[in-house]
Amino acid sequence: MRADRVFAYGAAAGLLGDLLFGDPRRGHPVAAFGRAAGAVERVLWRDHRGWGALHTTVCAGGAVALAVAADRAVRTCGAASVALTAAATWAVVGGTSLGREARAAGDALAAGDIEAARERLPHLCGRDPQALDADGIARAVVESVAENTSDAVVGALVWGAVAGVPGLAGFRAVNTLDAMVGHRSPRYRRYGWASARLDDVAGWPGARLTAVLAAVAGDDPRGAIRAWRTDAGQHPSPNAGPVEASFAGALGVRLGGTLSYAGRVEHRPVLNGGGRPVRVGDIERAVRLSRRVGLLALGVSVAGRLLAGAAAGKGRTS
Q: What is the pTM of this model?
């Protein structure tokens, strides 16, 4: 079976598995990778960029190498290749779990239980929940849904279309490393530099596709494009900026502003300043938009891979 068809069937089956079941309950491969990366960090950690780059190379390179070996082992059997692609897609895509966590926080806010909402927030992002009121939590949830739509769904599908199972595994490994060591704390400012920069590169195409699809699938396409063009460049993250700005414009809400990470206050630019403040009901709207974006991303990724496969086949026969 051609590689483009393997990806098309496998990615569709894997995304369906995520829609039906969410993340694997036990033995999640991403969790296993995180434990392995933590063990490598305990051996290699030095307050130095070079050692951090070695950590990134060992962990991300190891994940890609294992994926390449698995892919080669089943390459001669089309059904096994599809099954491996489906399993890898299911393991690395986390859109359903993202929606569940966002809705859990939204339900708590709707019930007036702000403490329960604060307990749910760390499942979505690294913000300091005690520094947020109900409106701040709602805004943080919407921003997290937007960013993680790119990180947990679209980016993985894009790299899967480019490089199959190794692309899926490599993207998730890089993204996980960034979450673990890529932040600007005293311990990781130097050690996590390589992981953060590699994540910026790997996340670039998925973030732009997410921003485009949010504009297409949202309630206000012009507003999404306008917010992306005017506000995204002011965001400190080259990838979160376009995604959050496009979501803000598509939903008609205002995102960004002051936030706190582990006691460190950051003053980020306002995205879609003409929008209204986020309300609790906007969490459900953001989750639904995220779901639509994920499904569209599957279609775009599969179509792109099939077109590339057809062009390559035509080139070989001409």
A: 0.94
